[in-house]
Amino acid sequence: MVFKKFKDKKKKNKSKNFTEQPIITRVKMPRNQEVFGIIEQRVGANRMIVKCLDGKQRNCRIPGALRRRLWIRPGDTVIVKPWEFDSDKRGDVLFKYRPAQIEWLKRKGFLKDVEGEF
């Protein structure tokens, strides 16, 4: 039996140096009762304390559909949907903004109240 020797084809590693930030054309905005919020503290079990821009502090959770896809740390900017009952104290985290999107929101004036914080 004859074995063929396969040569390892060396792949050229094309380094992708992204010095430029991506150009933001669309940014998800809060609809209906949704508000902007900033994560203050993680309290365990996919729950966190969020300071919302409507002046309230809510204990928010990550819904089951987003639980493994949405990784959140203190200081992140998110969209919060308050619950129908107990809306002043509780809510759901629906979306997390990326750094380039946060800069765009600040430039456009949507996050004026937050610039000095964090």
Q: What's the topology here?
A:
Blueprint: E1 35-44, E2 47-52, E3 57-61, E4 77-82, E5 90-96, H1 99-108
Parallel strand pairs: 3-5
Antiparallel strand pairs: 1-2, 1-4, 2-3, 4-5
Characterization of the model:
By secondary structure, this protein is mainly β. It has a domain of 76 residues: Beta Barrel (OB fold (Dihydrolipoamide Acetyltransferase, E2P)), CATH 2.40.50. Helices cover 8% and strands 29% of the residues. It has a five-stranded mixed barrel. β2 and β3 form a beta hairpin. 16% of the residues are buried.
State the shape.
extended
Order of helices and strands: EEEEEH
Largest sheet: 5 strands, mixed, barrel
Computed over alpha carbons, the radius of gyration is 21 Å
Total count of strands: 5
Strands across the major sheet, in which order?
A: 1-2-3-5-4
Which fold name is given in CATH as the topology of the domain at 35-110?
OB fold (Dihydrolipoamide Acetyltransferase, E2P)
Termini separation (Å)?
A: 68 Å
- Report helical residue fraction: under 10%
Oligomer: single chain
Write out the CATH superfamily name of the domain at 35-110: Nucleic acid-binding proteins
Features:
118 residues; 29% strand; 5-stranded mixed β-barrel; extended; mainly beta; 8% helix
Short characterization:
This protein has one helix spanning 99-108, and strands spanning 35-44, 47-52, 57-61, 77-82, 90-96. It has 118 residues and is mostly beta strands.
